[in-house]
Amino acid sequence: MKNSKRKLIILGSGFASFSTLKGIDTDLYEVVVVSPRNHFIFTPLLPSTTVGTIEFRSIIEPIRSAKENITYYQAFCTGIDTAGKRIDCTGALDGNIFSLPYDTLVIGVGAVSNTFGIPGVERYGLFLKELSDARAIRQRIIENFERASTPNLPFEERRRLLHFVVVGGGPTGVEFAAELHDFMTEDLVDSYASVLPDVSITLFEAGDALLSSFDAALSEYTVRIFQRQKISVRLHAQVAAVEEKEILLKDGSRVPYGMMVWSTGNTQTSFVRSLPFEKDRGSRLITDEYFRVKGQSDLYSLGDCATIEGKVLPATSQVAQQEGYYLARSLNAVAKGRTAAPFIYHHRGMLAYIGSNRALADLPQVKGRGFSTWIFWRSAYLTKLVSWKNKVLVVFDWMKAFVFGRDASRF
Amino acid sequence: MKNSKRKLIILGSGFASFSTLKGIDTDLYEVVVVSPRNHFIFTPLLPSTTVGTIEFRSIIEPIRSAKENITYYQAFCTGIDTAGKRIDCTGALDGNIFSLPYDTLVIGVGAVSNTFGIPGVERYGLFLKELSDARAIRQRIIENFERASTPNLPFEERRRLLHFVVVGGGPTGVEFAAELHDFMTEDLVDSYASVLPDVSITLFEAGDALLSSFDAALSEYTVRIFQRQKISVRLHAQVAAVEEKEILLKDGSRVPYGMMVWSTGNTQTSFVRSLPFEKDRGSRLITDEYFRVKGQSDLYSLGDCATIEGKVLPATSQVAQQEGYYLARSLNAVAKGRTAAPFIYHHRGMLAYIGSNRALADLPQVKGRGFSTWIFWRSAYLTKLVSWKNKVLVVFDWMKAFVFGRDASRF
Q: Which sequence spans correspond to the domains of chain B?
């Protein structure tokens, strides 16, 4: 009986792959997940973890316990042998090499942060894609506050250490700047009162608006709120290079900084670039409306590493999640000899937190902003969290931050 | 008014220093804390954090928010100028050098793990004194389970990766072995079912008993329970050297291992060793019964880095905490022109967790063991936790681990 099941390998553990995994019927498929990250992250709440509004563990779901009767390998896929129907893997922890057979392969490996080849970004910048990134940011914030508190420090050096820069005015950059502002005004204000007047936050955006995918009125509202919160917003500002203590802009000016978070969108992984399949200009794998990789059989791709031919969908968790659940249903149908209808994306709207208990909601029916929208933002994300465990933990984290404040220890 | 207050510098942020800080009257003293660690850790619950029974943040207390109107510097003290009444400091994060004046100085810098100069311990062993140690242990456990799950791994290598060794049969080593056992049998059993038969835990102790400071019957009970829990206890086992994958014992045998936690007691820091004051054979600063450093004025020392002349007190958190609270009361009295009575230690007893919801209690009036003692163990530690915040968080962590299990993600 067991051997009659088709071997399904899923590459990746982000929204697209994890949703496929959650939806797949393990009575129909023998499922193997291969990913260097052994947990799923609910990335919409990742900015909240940087300052401790939410704990790291509250927004993750271990792959091994996400579903029964699956196999998981903490490894990178390094190559696909479509003729022999095998994949090559390298252990993420020890570099051990092994290969696995598949009948059906799902490529949902996501994308990586795009530095546009700007010198110094990789070396001096911090990113915001993984929990380890969020932890590095949290530690750096506290480290800089502690360093700025050293006696006899020159004024200029203290100001530099306490200048927090965010590059990229998309939802992640905006939400991180907002959380940073809350952390400083609500929590660090007591512990670091003497240096707080020297703190500044700057958000650089190369385009002409923050949250350009949102309704224009909401985007302008965000700029106004940020100004009131003393977050300096600099539009049309392009970074030319990053040095250890200064950012060089294309207009020739130099900006001293203490921490820089880089959040300017994604680019493809070297693995996806190396695959010999048809791709679009952004190096994404081209698929049909069933997520079948163009010109290949038994090969599917979805999420940030793929694009449906003739359609343009944003690289959001909402899209990836819908794609994953669709693909699971579709594969379950295929195994039963049926065929699913093509994928259709249902846009439910966009949400963003902008600080001081205010949020934006850009929904198909309505545009909302302010405090009541923030309540909606929290409820909506709570509903979207994958497991009951995560829902309970996040609610407790919010209560904890409300009652006891956020923690400013560094360890 | 402000300038009439005496300048009190406290070095350290462990039980002794933190208790002094909590008890000191900031109307009487202008308080400065200098310590490379910006938080206090409730170390008796540190073994529980290694496997996620308790979260890291639940057992710490940031120094800056522990008390109002104090100054804190994240720095090492490197020298004391008793004639000029100043201390030299080096910033823990940036190496910046500065000096601070004092009227009264309290040295409570604690001790460091003792490797007895055994080759390889520092390089390959993990310790259990700080939260960063606990995190490193947690990550290594999961890493080894993931590596052991790689396909086609030789049997011997899998057994090696899953051999967890604890060196030192004191309370920390015993409690860590117990937590490790619980984690594996209660949580990893589902996620890593296929490799679980290859797991082993060994506890090496150089002496002839575990928990030698406890009542002999309780010590023997622990060995019996550990045997039932398949924790192999090896008494009279002395480590000669540690290599990357093998431990060499003095009897010439070689023991392959995947992770080794070293917990064999403490030795003095290089800072305390460098001080030109009178010390005992263990390099601890000798004080009188008021914690005044012998032959010095306005200089106090307590906790693991000090010893009262003619008295032998164990290096436990209980002793350090009582000393700290006493010293605060005593210094408050001195500032008011009064003198406190000499310090007297009140032994309240000892507790240890030994796994599977069983604990030991060695109290002056009664010796307890088993499940009901475990309930007592939890209640007692809850009472001892310093802040309400920590009490609430630890209770929630226990509930969380009970309902949802411990988390096995690595990030």
A: 2-37+74-111+268-335, 121-265
Given CB atoms, is A243 within the 8 Å cutoff of chain B? no
DSSP A64-86: HHHSSSEEEE-EEEEEEETTTTE
Predicted complex ipTM: 0.90
Nearest CA in chain B to A190: B65
Nearest residue of A to residue B187, measured between CA atoms:
A65
Q: How far apart are the first and last CA of chain B?
A: 51
Fold of A121-265+349-404: FAD/NAD(P)-binding domain (3.50.50)
- Size of chain A, expressed as the number of residues it contains: 411
If you write DSSP's letter for every residue of A276-309 in order, what string do you get? Answer: -S-B-TTSPEEE-TT-BBTT-SSEEE-GGGEEET
Distance, in Å, from the CA atom of A46 to the CA atom of B203, rounded to the nearest integer, reads 39
The answer to whether A248 and A254 are in contact (CB under 8 A) is: yes
Q: Which burial class, exposed, middle or buried, applies to B221 when counting CB atoms under 10 A from its CB (0-12, 13-18, 19+)?
A: buried
Strand partners, A12: none
Secondary structure element (H or E) that encloses residue A380, with its range: helix A371-384
Residue B73: both structure tokens together: 């510097």
8 Å CB contact of B149 and A56: no
Give the CATH fold of the B121-265 domain.
Answer: FAD/NAD(P)-binding domain (3.50.50)
DSSP assignment of A314-348 equals -S-HHHHHHHHHHHHHHHHHHHTT--PPPP-----
Q: How far is B41 from chain A, CA to nearest CA, in Å?
A: 11
Q: Is A275 helix (H, G, I), strand (E, B) or coil?
A: coil
Chain A, window 115-134: residues with a beta carbon less than 8 angstroms from a chain B beta carbon? 130-132
pLDDT digits (tens), chain A, 411 positions:
445 899 999 999 999 999 999 999 999 999 999 999 999 999 999 999 999 999 998 999 999 999 999 999 999 999 999 999 999 999 999 999 999 999 999 999 999 999 999 999 999 999 999 999 999 999 999 999 999 999 989 999 999 999 999 999 999 999 999 999 999 999 998 899 999 999 999 999 999 999 999 999 999 999 999 999 989 999 999 999 999 999 999 999 999 999 999 999 999 999 999 999 999 999 999 999 999 999 999 999 999 999 999 999 999 999 999 999 999 999 999 999 998 999 999 999 999 999 999 999 999 989 999 999 999 999 999 988 888 889 999 999 999 888 888 887 777
Common-topology check for domains B2-37+74-111+268-335 and B121-265:
yes
Measured at the CA of B372, the angle between CA B370 and CA B374, to 5 degrees, comes to 70
- What residues are paired with A9 via a beta bridge? A32, A105
State the CATH class of domain A2-37+74-111+268-335: alpha beta
Distances, alpha carbon B224 to alpha carbons B126, B190, B263, B359, B377, in Å: 26, 27, 21, 13, 20
Nearest to A191 among B55, B62, B75 (CB): B62
Written in H, E and C, the secondary structure of B206-235 is: CCCCCCCCCCHHHHHHHHHHHHHCCEEEEC
Question: In this structure, are strands B350-355 and B358-362 parallel, antiparallel, or unpaired?
Answer: antiparallel
C-alpha torsion angle, residues B115, B121, B127, B129 (rounded to 10): 30
CB spacing of A411 vs B39 below 8 angstroms: yes
